Amino acid sequence: MRFWACGGQLGKDILFDETEFKNGQKLVTKLRNAFQFTKMQLADADINALKNE
After folding, report:
1. pTM, entire model
2. How far apart are CA 48 and CA 52, in angstroms?
3. Chain centroid offset of residue 43 CA
4. Of residues 38, 28, 33, 3, the one with CA closest to residue 18
5. Phi, psi of 51, deg, nearest 5
C-alpha cells in the first residue's frame, strides 16, 4: 500500500491500479529473496578466516 501511495503527488487524485500492487509485491519478493540468500551465505561463512586476510 505504501509503495502505491508514494507514487502520487500532493493535492492530486490517484487512480487505483491493481498492477501497481502486483509490481510492489514483486519488488518485496525480490528484496526478501536477496535477504534470504545473503543470510544463507553469511551463515556458511567462516568469519575467522576473513579476519586473517
Report:
1. 0.54
2. 7
3. 21
4. 3
5. -70, -30
